[in-house]
Amino acid sequence: MNPVAKLLIVGGIVMIIAGVLWIVGGKFLNLGRLPGDIAVEKGNFKIYFPIATCIVISVVLSLIMYLVRWFTK
């Protein structure tokens, strides 16, 4: 099979999984409100640092990329 076609298929599957997780996970996971996320609100000023959420997303994406590389060898 052509490597570009294989990459497109795997990319499509990853996007489908991400979409399903986005829909289902939003109801059960509190991404954006994890312990470690910093929110500062003072009057009209609001700032938000989603540190823990970024770490979780990074770990999940790293795992997905590792699996994609492992399956495409």
Automatic annotation (TrEMBL):
Keywords: Membrane, Transmembrane, Transmembrane helix. The keyword Methyltransferase does not apply. InterPro entries: DUF2905. The chain crosses the membrane at residues 7-25, 45-68. The keyword Transmembrane helix applies. This is DUF2905 family protein. It comes from the Bacteria.
